[in-house]
Every structure is written in C-alpha cells, then in structure tokens.
Please model this.
Amino acid sequence: SQTIHQWPATLVQPVGSPLSLECTVEGTSNPNLYWYRQAAGRGLQLLFYSVGIGQISSEVPQNLSASRPQDRQFILSSKKLLLSDSGFYLCAWSVQGLAGLNEQFFGPGTRLTVL
Amino acid sequence: AQKITQTQPGMFVQEKEAVTLDCTYDTSDPSYGLFWYKQPSSGEMIFLIYQGSYDQQNATEGRYSLNFQKARKSANLVISASQLGDSAMYFCAMRERTGGFKTIFGAGTRLFVKA
Model:
C-alpha cells in the first residue's frame, strides 16, 4: 500500500531563517506531487505541484520554492522565512493520468510557526 | 466568484443520526471531479469520497454518500449513523479538467457529534 511521509511534524523558526520541509511517498511510482498551505481555520491553498523529477509548477508567487530531486521526494524550501509563512503545510500525491481528476492523498502535515 | 461554497461553518448532530453537509460549486467545464475530505484535529486530510461529473449514480463509500445534483451544482455529503469519531472539519473540493492539477477547496464545515 502507498504511504506518504512528511517531516518535521512541527517547526518553530525565526524570521529570516531558511526552511526545508521534506515529503516522501512509498508504494507508488511516478506520482503527481503537491504542496499545500493551510492558514489557521481556513481551506487549502495549492503552492506547487510536480508531474515528474525536476518538473515544478508554481501556483502562487511567494518566497517559497519547491524541488523534486527524486521520483518520490518533494521538498519545500525558503531562503528567508516571513511571518506570513506560518501555517500548516501538507504534501499530497495522486496517480498520474486518469485525466487529472483523481483524488489526492495527503501526508500528516508540518505545522510551521515563524516568530 | 467562489468556485466551491460551503455555507455551514459549523454543524451539530446527535450520535447515530444522519447529517448532511452542503457544498455548491461553480464551473463551466463539463468535465470535473468533486471530492470530500475529512480533517480531524490531528491535521491530516483524509479522502472520503469522489464523484465524477459524468457519473450517473451518486457515489457511496460505507457510511458516506454524495448527493450529486448536477443541475443545481451541488454535491452534498451525507454521513449516516454519525459516530463520535466523525467530529472533524470537512472540506468539499473540485478539480476541473481545464484547471490542470489545481484542486479548489471550500472553506470547510466543522462537524460536532454529540453523545
């Protein structure tokens, strides 16, 4: 069966510090991968998605970036965190194909607090 | 305009009773998918049920069913025989074929199940 891992689970970082959140998927090959952010009490906002190694699409301009160095690894980064980067970050995967209308499966999330 | 609207910020239901969570959507794309996710206090997003725009029958998954009324553009989630563990946030979401990989989420409904 497929599983998706995220770490760390929680993170407290000072403003201006760098960020690296990691997501890995097991039990599937060539998945679509996604990064979402959820502000407190709000819905999800898609930040990045990837259909393959090295292929990253950005949905929202910001000081965050994403990379996919391996098929089942997705990394969210920032060189300098802002207070507004605080939130709950969720990684998700979906099966390639199926006309893109298939469901996504989410990881456990990382709660980031920028102070 | 809002693509996904969930008009109930909070709902209460008695244990063992059924509850309907409302969701309306807006799209001009004839090909789309509708999803419901559950988010317990732990934060993870759990996929519940999927309805395709061309599906003739309403989707069902165990105690979850989706009341799909295409002409009204509504996709309400029905939870039968509510359990205490059903207390969570519930998100309605949509993906349009022309939208690529972007999943649009509603603001969510918080469900409280009373013993």
